[in-house]
Amino acid sequence: ERGEYRHYMQKEIFEQPRAVADTLEARISPNGVLPNIFGVGGDELLAKVKGLHIIACGTSYHAGLVAKYWIEEYARLPVNVEVASEYRYREAVVPDGTLFVAISQSGETADTLAAMRESRRRGYLGTLAICNVPESSVVREADLKLMTRAGPEIGVASTKAFTTQLAALGLLTLQLAHQRGLDGARYADLTAQLLHMPSMIEKALELEPRIIELSERLIHRQHALFLGRGAQHPVAMEGALKLKEISYIHAEAYAAGELKHGPLALVDEDMPVIAVAPNGPLLDKLKSNLQEVRARGGELLVFADGEASMDGNASRGVILRMDGGGDFIAPAVFTVPMQLLAYHVAVLRGTDVDQPRNLAKSVTVE
Ligand code: M6R
């Protein structure tokens, strides 16, 4: 039931604090990840992992891309992330000790399921499913599983499935990192961040009134560019996917450093640029990318971490401050305004938000 909400998508966006809390429930304590949350023998198998191949489609693929940044940084294991429709038809090299990870909300996406079946032939250490539907094919066929507990997602545009996938991948990251000797204080800090993910998402949802105002700026646009760096690059990709999926505005995401290698040619006063700018070592780099946009008259919408010092004199544009909740969980928290922006632009444009044209909730055909 939609209840007080206008669309399922909006309801599902606002369910995220609960959905993420449920996904973390009884799996992590302030001392760290609890034993064997991936199923019987899971921790033993994970201890042997030397690298990961993460396979998924659409939004679930974006969750995998965030996890690559996390796992490589904290567990120091190599991670490849690939869309299932490519992976299944090419001869991927599988080094010894590689774990195959499938991410899927539905667990029935044809390409993801076929990729998982194909992986059996390719000599993996084992398979792990991160999925929202316990009785789905992907879950049934995996060795290890970690269920997201988002509850049914009705809106075709995936929202709470994504943030719960990030919560689950956060647990996987912590387990792998701990087993590989991550510094105790850092492990405690990352654990605390993950435990705060629900409350930080809750706070981000309070931005809705500001985002409704901002969405006016996009309704008559044909195109939009999304920028991020590091683990926020996949968040920019997810923002662009949401916007194009439900508002039918053409949107593309770039790693901000790629701007001058091509897309800058598109930037003029008709091209809004949406940037995710959390705190951290890449902030200065991102600021100089944004300066390039500003110099060309492009309109900037910047979502900035509360502590980040941004130049407040954006001639055309807005800086919206929020609290990312720390370097680890910031990608999940910054996703929320991307979802709200896409949602409200689509509502203003009068599209069928929950059932966008040409799309199906579960892509069970190739
Ligand atoms: O059920 P899955 O997670 O396997 O679905 C994958 C994609 O089809 C899905 O994320 C799609 O991209 C969404 N409509 C995005 O909002």
UniProtKB/TrEMBL annotation:
Top-level EC class: transferase
Annotated source species: Dyella japonica A8
Keywords, alphabetical: Aminotransferase, Cytoplasm, Glutamine amidotransferase, Repeat, Transferase
Record carries keyword Cytoplasm: yes
Assembly information from the UniProt record: Homodimer.
Record domain SIS: where: 42-182, 214-356
Gene Ontology biological-process entries: amino sugar biosynthetic process; carbohydrate metabolic process; fructose 6-phosphate metabolic process; protein N-linked glycosylation; UDP-N-acetylglucosamine metabolic process
Gene that this polypeptide is encoded by: glmS
GO cellular component: cytosol
Intracellular or extracellular location(s): Cytoplasm
GO MF: carbohydrate derivative binding; glutamine-fructose-6-phosphate transaminase (isomerizing) activity
Protein name: Glutamine--fructose-6-phosphate aminotransferase [isomerizing]
Keyword Transcription regulation among record annotations: no
Catalytically driven reaction(s): D-fructose 6-phosphate + L-glutamine = D-glucosamine 6-phosphate + L-glutamate
Full protein: residues contained: 244 to 609 of 609
Catalytic residue positions: 361 (for fru-6p isomerization activity)
